[in-house]
Amino acid sequence: AQKITQTQPGMFVQEKEAVTLDCTYDTSDPSYGLFWYKQPSSGEMIFLIYQGSYDQQNATEGRYSLNFQKARKSANLVISASQLGDSAMYFCAMRDGGATNKLIFGTGTLLAVQP
Amino acid sequence: DVKVTQSSRYLVKRTGEKVFLECVQDMDHENMFWYRQDPGLGLRLIYFSYDVKMKEKGDIPEGYSVSREKKERFSLILESASTNQTSMYLCASSLFYRGSGNTIYFGEGSWLTVV
Q1: Which of A30, B84, B104, B107 would disulfide-bridge B6, Cβ 3.0–4.6 Å?
Q2: Which residue among A52, A99, A107 places its CB closest to the CB of B42?
Q3: Which residues contact B93 (CB under 8 A, 6 or more apart)?
Q4: Is the pLDDT of residue A39 over 90?
Q5: CA dihedral defined by B85, B52, A91, A43, rounded to 10 degrees?
Q6: Which residues of A touch B88 (CB under 8 A)?
Q7: What are phi and psi of A78, to 5 degrees?
Q8: Among B35, B98, B101, whose Cβ lies nearest the Cβ of A99?
Q9: Residues of A in Cβ contact (< 8 Å) with B40
Q10: Beta-carbon neighbour count of residue A18 at 10 Å?
Q11: What is the mean pLDDT of chain A?
Q12: Residue B1: per-residue pLDDT
């Protein structure tokens, strides 16, 4: 069965420092996609970054990068130069091998950026 | 601008009431999803639909049903609400074609309290 694991329930980071949020996944499907979402206290899910299983390079989007290690089945999110507005819940998710775009989510990591 | 709209942001219902959560998307998407979000559990898929009148159970369908009579609207129904259904409910939609990246759109969530 497919599974996403986020082992850090909560994390602190100082403003302007980099932080890594961990995500490991399990799937037997050779084709899959990995997503990171940010959820502020307002509840909306904000898409951050995507990595396809066949992508050769690690995905980057502005201050966000995804450290994709396929052999280790990990897809860690790196946020560089943290800002106070980065304080939120972060979810790692995987799209399954079917055609439905169904996402399987991890349990989330609550990030608090300290001034 | 793409839009997934959930009809109610906050609801308080009594045990045993029938509850309808409505979701409308304006992107002509084939797929629509209902997730439930609970602390420490992340988002869990309740039901999804890949076409009008088509539906499939997700991971936690017990106590819920869905209706999709029109392509743009996907309703989640709690036939007899119970206190353990107090949660935040998120609707999402996507094209049938998997694509990549930001192809799955979320509503703002509905906070349901059952008393």
Answers
A1: B107
A2: A107
A3: B4, B23, B25, B27, B29, B31, B32, B33, B74, B104, B105
A4: yes
A5: -60
A6: 43
A7: -115, 125
A8: B98
A9: 9, 107
A10: 13
A11: 93
A12: 67
Q: Residues B52-90: pLDDT tens digits?
A: 989 999 999 999 999 999 999 999 999 999 999 999 999
Give B-chain residues touching A108 at CB under 8 angstroms: 42
Nearest chain B residue to A1 by CA distance is B59
CA B49, CA B57: separation in Å to the nearest integer? 9
- Taking CA atoms, what residue in B is nearest to A38? B106
How many Cα neighbours within 13 Å face the side chain of B82?
4
Angle (CA) B9-B64-A103 rounded to 5° is: 75
Q: What is the pLDDT of residue A93?
A: 95
Q: In what helix (H) or strand (E) does residue B19 lie, and over which residues does it extend?
A: strand B19-25
| Residue-wise burial string across A54-74, b where 16 or more C-beta atoms lie within 10 A, e elsewhere | eeeeebeeeebbbbbeeeeeb
Q: Is A90 helix (H, G, I), strand (E, B) or coil?
A: strand
Cα–Cα distance, B43 to A91 (Å, whole number):
9
**CB–CB of A34/A68 below 8 Å?**
yes
Q: Which of A98, A80, A94 is nearest to A23 (CA)?
A: A94
Q: Cβ atoms within 10 A of the Cβ of B25, count?
A: 22
What's the CA gap between B86 and A87, in Å, rounded?
A: 25
CA distance B13 to B101: 37
The answer for A56, left when phi > 0, alpha when psi is -120 to 50, beta otherwise, is: alpha
